[in-house]
Amino acid sequence: MTDVPFLDLSAQHDVVRADLREAFEDILDSSQFVLGPHVERFERAFASACDTSECIAVNTGTSALHLSLLAAGVGAGDEVITVSLSFVATAAAVLYAGATPVMVDVDPTTWTMDPAAAEAAITPRTKAIIPVHLHGQMADVAALRDLCDRHGLTLIEDACQAHLAVRGGKRAGSAGAFAAFSFYPGKNLGACGEGGAITTSHEQGADLIRLLRDWGATERYHHELVGFNYRMDALQGAFLAAKLVHLARWTDERTELARRYDQRLDALGIVRPRPAPDSVHVYHVYAVRISARDAARRALREQGIETNCHYPIPIHRQSGYVDRVRVAGSLINTEQCCAEFVSLPMYPGLPESAVDRVCSALKHFAA
Ligand SMILES: *Cc1c(COP(=O)(O)O)cnc(C)c1O
Question: Tens digits of per-residue pLDDT, 140-150?
Answer without folding.
Answer: 999 999 999 99
